């Protein structure tokens, strides 16, 4: 009887500990998203990007080693960096320092300024990423979670399949066995021509899955968290016609604002054990 009671007590304590840990994970993420320190323009886009739901779908926990690919101005970094700070490790695999593209240099400089001026970014580890040429995003086999948001079309448009495949192979190398790759990307309807992927900014979900599998990944799950049925993906200036870019400026702006941001696939892959 004493053994049974002791076993029940141990099990109860383990369950309570697990629940507390899960709650702390949720709290760190929710606090980062709800923080008043976030840029108001960034927060306004949560209704399109669903950061809490998306990161939870990918299995994010603050004590993980997380790599974000091409963080740009830091929309997701503003959530990930403070959520991981003091608990895990966050790598920002930004544009290369030797890039010849002016936009890349400006974006990188802006991100470095955040790292030096903003306490939320004080523990960020900066690495470099560019398809084919800069692939050491984190030490090999060190990452629990690699994340890429709306980037695959850039690699494909720039360097075709070679660019996209090299990127996924870099993610595979950085991840631990059993680690997770989370992908969010603008979604092109499957009935459309593959050629549309070269200029529209949209990618077919089947194509992205195939590239990931060629790199060695297994598809775990897909989600419509970031789906937008109002987006027909056939706009005059591709995905950039929609918010936040609004490439047509004021022309039909109300129409495209009513559609909102693009329809997006949300895919969860794993590196096999």
Automatic annotation (TrEMBL):
Q: Which stretch is the leader sequence?
A: 1-22
The molecular function GO annotations come to: methyltransferase activity
Q: Which SUPFAM superfamilies match?
A: S-adenosyl-L-methionine-dependent methyltransferases (SSF53335)
Q: Does the keyword Secreted apply?
A: no
Name the domain of life.
Bacteria
A single GO BP: methylation
Q: Which UniProt keywords apply?
A: Methyltransferase, Signal, Transferase
UniProt key word Transferase: yes
The protein's name: Class I SAM-dependent methyltransferase
